[in-house]
Amino acid sequence: MTMLSTTRRVSGGLLATLAFAVAAAAQTAFAPAVIVNDDIITYYDVGQRAKLLQLSGAQPGPQLNSAAVEQLIDDRLRAQAGRRAGLSADPEELSAAIEEFAQRFNLDGAGFLAKTRSAGIDRQALDSFLGSQVVWRELVNARFGARATPSEVELDQEIALAAASQTKSYRISEIAIPAGPGQEAEARAALERIMRELRRGADFATLARRYSRAPSAANGGDVGWVPDSMLPPDLAQIMANTPPGGVTPPVAAPGGVSIYRVGDTRDEVPPWARESEVTLRRIAVPLDGSGQDATAAAMATAEDLKAQANGCGSLPELGGRATVESIDRKLVSALPGPVRDAVQLLQSGQASRPVAANDSVDIFIVCERSGGVDEETRAQLRDQIRTRRLTRLAEGFLQDLRREAVIERR
């Protein structure tokens, strides 16, 4: 036997061994780590999600992989629920989601994709993550949108509550751990471990990105400024007893347990919550007789005068058809009901719809307005309430999906 033939056999053996090792490693990477309703999550999927979490500031370690697994389970449940509803993310929606997500890193979509590639995150893993978010958003809006949207009465109640007293607002960050029936103790134990890390000097935002399951996790748990009137009474009391920079004990809520960091506090009455005052001009068209015909004629005249009005500085030519009265500053709430309803959303210079009175049909022009809630602010408040309700409903829905799912951990 020659040295060359021996070397060839050894080299061949090494190559075979290496090939077997590579194949075994690949088989392990793509082996099931978790099965969610027959939907497989591989160890490769877990590794990819862990890299994505690290990109957002999470630190490597066993707990990182655990957080990745839990997120992937939720994503699979979201995607499955979306498929049952006939929903999927198309390429345009995925591109928009990438652009939106990239803003968290102060990048455009192309820059963010380059960053993920350099971190070893493949496009399929990224699309799977963002696609589940897109589908979930559509599903939650379709399922709960009407229920979450406040009525005008509910919106007025929120505004009246805010106007009634000065409120304290808190700059809040959160770490939320979901907990189904019988799982609250486990969630509390997880939060206690997180609090021990905080006491050792860990950064709250980093831990929120790593462990929290709330939508705010991607922003380091930052919820923003929240007035205490928007908080459940028990949580508002806990916040009141937590100094700036402090962290609350674990707090139970529907669907889970959370801890909150109070970044800062401030006392405020939002400008829109102040009672609105108006100065008005009343243009009164007298009724010429009684009955429906007289009212209809006065209504037509009032509509004509309204069309000609251009603020209080340029009143229409009345020609004896109407009289004008100035109404000095009055609280909108103190006006008679029909007048209040007609002017409460008007801004300076705008004229109201015709308002029927005992012996006239009137239009009211707003000369000045201070305080109060304009339509743009009402729309913003409506969106805030709707978003808050949708978040709670979505969390409860996801917990229902988890409770009903068959989840097999390997």
From TrEMBL:
The keyword Isomerase applies. Residues 1-31 form the signal peptide. Residues 167-264 form the PpiC domain. It comes from the Bacteria. GO terms for molecular function: peptidyl-prolyl cis-trans isomerase activity. PROSITE patterns: PPIC_PPIASE_1, PPIC_PPIASE_2. Keywords: Isomerase, Rotamase, Signal. This is Parvulin-like PPIase. It comes from Pikeienuella piscinae.
